[in-house]
Amino acid sequence: MNLDINSILSFYNNFDVFLVVFVRFLGFFMLVPVFGGMNIPVMTKVTISAGVALIAASSGNIIAVNYNDTMAGYIGLIATELITGLIIGFVVYFMFSVYLFVGQLVDYQLGFAMASVFDPLSSMQVPITGNLYYLFIAAMFVRLGGLDQFIQILFYSYKTIPIGTARILNGNIAGILINQMVIYIQTGVKIALPVIGTIIIVDLALGLLVKAVPQMNIFVVGMPVKVFIGLIVVYLIVPVIADSYFTVFTMAKGFVRQIIMNNS
Questions:
Q1: Rounded Cα distance, 232 and 224, in Å
Q2: Less CB within 10 Å around the terminal CB: N or C of the chain?
């Protein structure tokens, strides 16, 4: 591809626009699933954000920047755009982290709650089952084009939230995030309900067995039985986890659209 002097001068003259577009995409890629992990080098996130921002800035849909003609005004604009991208990325990450919550509920029932592992993606201790579910869903997220769709949504967000018009201090956004938290808990409990219900039934059966056979050591027999049956149920609900992806993905898209519509 040959670059003429006019293209270079045009990019130089609109570099302030490119920089503002870049920070919104950078905030998004800092938190979105797959790219938001600590194992992804910062330069990789910066490079991808810069490439996508260059496409967006050169598309012709972004022409001018609305900010005070001062250094302080421009810095404030950059901070606003960065926070806007972070909010959108956080909404996507938070919705998909429901599988970590599901794993926490499952591990608590199976007695694996103390066997958490360090997750390099989030730099924190996560449940074993939750980490397995999250990686499985993250693979589906990339394979089925979910990441591409959210990048497109962010790309077209400039039609609803032009540069300089974002309102991050918005009570509606706080309400959306609170509503998302409620749905997050409800969704996690629904997905984990088969395991929770099965383990409750097993506990009741073991309780009746102890009453019938007082000589039996429930701690020796009960724990292996719970783990064995629980792992069978965890295996059987894998198709349910896969099907739940589409529900969670649709909810995440809905929350992102609400954030964009209420941030203008």
A1: 12
A2: N
CA–CA dist 50, 20 (Å, integer): 11
Q: Which three-class secondary structure state does DSSP give residue 165?
A: coil
Q: For residue 18, what are its two tokens? A: 């490119």
Q: How high is the pLDDT of residue 10?
A: 55
What phi, psi does 50 have (nearest 5°)? -65, -40
> Given pLDDT bands bounded at 50, 70 and 90, which one contains residue 60?
low
Q: Are 17 and 163 in contact (CB under 8 A)?
A: yes
Nearest to 119 by CA among 38, 15, 225, 206: 38
Six token digits for residue 188:
């996690």
DSSP string, 126-155: E-HHHHHHHHHHHHHHHHTTHHHHHHHHHH
Q: Which two tokens stand for residue 32?
A: 């979105």
Q: Which residues pair with 125 in a beta bridge?
A: 118
The rounded distance, in Å, linking the Cα atoms of 116 and 179 is 28
| Cβ atoms 53, 110 nearer than 8 A | no
Task: Please answer whether residues 20 and 163 qualify as being in contact, where contact means their C-beta atoms are separated by less than 8 angstroms.
Answer: yes
Place of tokens 């102890």: 210
Domain count, the chain: 1
Q: What CA–CA distance (Å, rounded) separates 212 from 235? A: 31
**Separation CA 38–CA 11 (nearest Å):** 32
pTM (2 d.p.): 0.80
Identity at 48, one-letter amino acid code = I
Chain mean position to CA 157: 18
Structural domain containing residue 29: 5-261
